[in-house]
């Protein structure tokens, strides 16, 4: 995935609840994007559930929570 944050914004990545209920976790690696981040990163996924989970192109498995940093 690719992310570009300008100025004083940060982003916290989180697994979407519907995916987490199936046992899939997408925040095994870095889940914090700092201000001025401009690049790509991989979502490292782990299935912690008892069943296999099929992923398809375009399925929404993560969400970004954005916040402005103030000093």
Describe the structure.
It is a single chain. By secondary structure, the protein is mainly beta. It contains one helix and seven strands; from the N terminus they run E-E-H-E-E-E-E-E. The strands form three sheets. A three-stranded antiparallel β-sheet has the order 4-2-7.
Largest sheet: 3 strands, antiparallel
Query: Taking strands numbered 1, 2, ... along the chain, how are they ordered across the largest sheet?
Result: 4-2-7
**Estimated share of beta-strand residues:** 35-45%
- Radius of gyration (CA) equals 14 Å
Task: Count the DSSP helices.
Answer: 1
What string, H for helix and E for strand, traces the elements in order? EEHEEEEE
- Overall mean pLDDT stands at 84
Sheet/helix structural class: mainly beta
Shape: elongated
Distance between the termini: 29 Å
Helix fraction?
under 10%
Describe, in short, the structure shown.
The protein is mainly beta. The protein has one helix at 17-20, and strands at residues 2-4, 9-15, 24-25, 32-33, 38-40, 46-47, 62-68.
């Amino acid at each position: 995935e690719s992310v570009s944050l300008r100025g004083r914004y940060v982003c916290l990545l989180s697994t979407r609840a519907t995916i987490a209920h199936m046992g899939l976790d997408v925040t095994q690696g870095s889940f914090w994007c700092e201000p001025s981040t401009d690049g790509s990163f991989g979502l490292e996924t782990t299935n912690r559930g008892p069943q296999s989970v099929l992923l398809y192109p375009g399925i929404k498995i993560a969400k970004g929570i954005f916040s402005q940093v103030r000093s």
